[in-house]
Design goal:
single chain; mainly beta; Helix Hairpins; 4 domains; 9-stranded mixed sheet; 5-stranded mixed sheet
Length: 570
């Protein structure tokens, strides 16, 4: 008779002090989560007549006792009672962390170097801003007034310098954020420090049989010191010559484990569930509203969003020459890539890795392919001329797989050339994804101020005005039509005393008046024929009381964090 019983957590009567039999076991399957793993061991034991205990020895100390589950079956009837977890002294064992420690040392050194660069760039920016706060009436020789005709050149120089410093700071901060993320990932993968005599755990399973039974057990438990992180590879073929654009998106997982167990030849499943995270929504505390007492000095510090990676300029090309015999040989067949089987549930997704796998216990990385998709993307060139007179190629598509894309880095390739790394956020099935694929050198972009007129009040109560007009020209050097989106912005005001007016007669009508709920940010999307060019004009007027001064302050965007906005002095 075969039986299968789940473990109980209440000691069965009469089993205390029973004889112990060691259960020899091996790891059969592992389910890896982003922040842990569930290990399932299989073992056999000969049960004696009456009450006894089956002991599974030498398991990691990081086992969660509440996660232990025992299932059994045998040649006869038997009962499974209490499951007892014991902490016992362990044997001395070496700590194999040379790989992680070496990577962490290199990353920490780079982190310190980047922190120094950020401090230097911020000091440069502060110097330029202090210079910009000095009035033109003090910039002339011997501290005298600068001629009015030289003022525009000073304004342009300050504006250009601030934009350059901002771009430099944004790039360094983006790399610093990437380094911090890599350090955090390695720290999470670091196991509990091994030391001589580190404790281990034994699991004692109380059983009772009416007659001797040959039994088989499956014991599963959750353990720390393991996890996986998603990584992606996107290969874009831009088409041309009548071919349509194509995008190959490969989803990979990098696994690490430092549990102290030998994961050799195991069935491997990856799950998106975070077992160590919260299990319910947080509670809200009451909020009191009161009068605001302004501080003496306030400086807003905002973190920048990762900037797009710069496009690689070099291209490597190789041509293979074959003789007549080689040309007559059969054409080689490309190897197939083994991918995992996806099981998408209502609240999670699991990836069953084909075959059996071995994960080293020294923390080194093992990579497996989870899925591979061929996508027909929509290509568009995006331009933000106020910050950079460069067009960037973007590929957009809908995520149609059953499993969501978890946040992770993506290696970007364009027409066979590696151009850098980007990042994918959390993407649910059906959501839109947009990946940047570097600079488009066949789109020439120029932006210049057309005019600027600012009046100075001559008497008390007069209104001050600041009129600005800019002209952007995009010219295509492509041999086929391209779709282009140009993004510009106009300052906005929440004060009734400050009015911002768009000059419709001098402004090209936008195709999107407000982009992604960003106030004052508009977009112009158009198709550009080969050799054609498109002109976009933006003009606005700001009015405010003559006895007040205005400032241009960056505002946080609706995305994952505040977006920087340089002061528009040009």
């Amino acid at each position: 008779m075969m039986t299968r019983l789940a473990a109980a957590l209440v000691l069965a009567p009469g089993l205390a002090g029973a004889a112990e039999t060691e259960l020899s076991s091996r790891i059969d399957r592992v389910t890896v989560y982003p922040d842990g793993a569930v290990v399932t061991r299989l073992g056999r034991a000969e049960l004696l007549q009456g009450a006894s205990q089956i002991v599974l020895r030498g398991l990691p100390a990081t086992i969660d006792p509440a996660s232990i589950r025992v299932e059994g079956k045998g040649s006869g009837a038997f009962a499974v009672g209490a499951v007892d977890v014991r902490l016992v002294p362990g044997e001395a064992r070496p700590v194999l962390d040379a790989v992680i420690d070496g990577k962490l040392k290199t990353l920490n050194e780079e982190k310190e170097m980047l922190a120094g660069r950020i401090s230097a760039i911020e000091a440069k920016r502060a110097t330029i801003e202090r210079f910009g706060q000095t009035g033109p009436d003090k910039l002339g020789p011997d501290g005298k007034a600068l001629p009015v005709a030289d003022w525009p050149a000073i304004f342009d120089a300050i504006g250009v310098s601030l934009v350059k410093v901002h771009e430099e700071l944004r790039g360094v901060r983006a790399r610093a954020a990437d380094v911090a993320g890599e350090i955090a990932a390695l720290e999470r993968a670091r196991p509990q420090p091994g030391r001589p005599g580190a404790p281990r755990r034994d699991i004692a399973i109380a059983v009772e049989a009416a007659a001797p039974v040959a039994a088989e057990f499956a014991v599963s438990y959750r353990v720390g010191g393991a996890g996986w992180t998603p990584h992606y590879e996107a290969r874009l073929s831009t088409g041309g010559g009548g071919a349509k654009p194509a995008l190959d998106l490969v989803r990979r997982a990098e696994l690490r484990q430092r549990t102290g167990e030998d994961w050799s030849d195991v069935a491997l499943t990856l799950s998106t569930t975070r077992a160590a995270g919260g299990t319910r929504a947080p509670d809200l505390s009451p909020v009191q509203v009161m009068f605001f007492e302004p501080p003496v000095l306030y400086e807003a510090r905002r973190s920048t969003a990762p900037a797009p990676m710069a496009a690689a300029r070099a291209k490597a090309e190789a041509e293979a020459l074959a003789d007549q015999t080689e040309r007559a040989a059969p054409a080689p067949v490309a190897a197939e890539v083994q991918t995992a089987t996806i099981e998408a549930g209502a609240y999670q997704a699991s990836f069953q890795v084909p075959g059996r796998a071995t994960i080293p216990q020294d923390g080194s990385t093992k990579t497996v392919v989870l899925s591979q998709a061929q996508i027909a993307p929509t290509l568009i060139a995006r331009i933000t001329p106020e910050l950079e007179e460069t067009a960037y190629l973007e590929a957009a598509f809908s995520h149609d797989e059953a499993a969501a894309l978890l946040p992770g880095t993506v290696a970007l390739h364009r027409d066979g050339t590696y151009i850098g790394r980007g990042r994918i956020g959390l993407v649910a099935p059906g959501d839109k994804v947009a990946l940047g694929f570097g600079a488009d050198d066949k789109l020439k972009v120029t932006r210049a101020p057309v005019r600027r007129r600012e009046n100075e009040p001559n008497w008390l109560g007069q209104t001050r005005t600041d009129l600005r007009e800019f002209r952007t020209v995009v010219k295509s050097l492509h041999a086929q039509p391209v779709t282009v989106t140009v993004t510009e912005r106009i300052p906005f005001s929440e004060s009734s005393a400050i009015t911002v007016e768009t000059l419709a007669a001098q402004t090209t009508p936008p195709t999107e008046k407000q982009v992604a709920d960003k106030r004052g940010v508009s977009a112009w999307t158009f198709d550009l024929a080969p050799g054609a060019e498109k002109e976009i004009k933006v003009a606005y007027r700001i009015k405010w009381p003559g006895d007040r001064e205005v400032t241009y302050a960056p505002q946080p965007g609706p995305g994952p964090g505040p977006q920087p906005m340089p002061r528009p002095l040009n």
